[in-house]
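Practice problem. Given the sequence and the SMILES for zinc ion, write out the predicted structure.
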Amino acid sequence: MSHGAMNLAGPVRVVSESYYPEAFLGIYQRPAEARAMFEARGWNTVAALQLRNPMHNAHAYLARIAMEVCDGIYVHQLIGKLKAGDIPADVRVKAIAVLMNKYFRKERVIQGGYPMEMRYAGPREALLHAVFRQNYGCSHLIVGRDHAGVGDTYGPYDAQKIFHEIPPGALLLKPLPLDWAFYCYECGGMASMKTCPHDSQAVIDDQGNYKGGARLMLSGTLLRKLLSEGKPVPKEFSKPEVMTVLREYYDKPRTKPEVQHPGTARN
Ligand SMILES: [Zn+2]
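Answer key:
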């Protein structure tokens, strides 16, 4: 980067943290607080998992991969405003908590919230996500396929490639590039594009029943439809405790969101 004739320096003061500290008590952490928690647990390496959705089995699989190579996982979700059809942050927090409490080692995972909205800026947003996770003391960021993408705007691996395009040493945090994860009925477990040789998509009817095929990639639209109609969601997609939280939300008529979705945003 070229430098101009002038540099500005001085203490940085936060003017307002808005409603986040009160509304997300125990979830909203400042960078120094997150760093202190990592240190108290003795974590040297911490992988951040960026989330803007409830944590389904595919996200949990990515978290487990990262846990195998890092000391801890920081499930760091965005708790800013949403687009129509998204699940509100307080419901997501609860859904993530029930999954973490039952299926993860408590001493190796922390849930946190960051007061920002998704930009759907693909690779550039992946870098932004990396910068603030570095500030939080994370050593790694899980960067999935089409991280922060929407529709077909970006190439599936653009958000992973951009980490090789920035100047060496510009970022201390390292990306943990992982591929799209899913349940495969042929593999008989969670798998990814990198590991699963079965190309066919699993077919789920509008009653939530498995009809055949291999890879289970429930679209957000079908998931919301099944939930809002009270129909079963394949157990391979998400843990029952997560589904219970989401059903409670969808069963409330006043808060029932629209099923319409502007695109197939992922991660
Ligand atoms: Zn497979």
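Check your answer against the key. The chain has one domain: 33-255.
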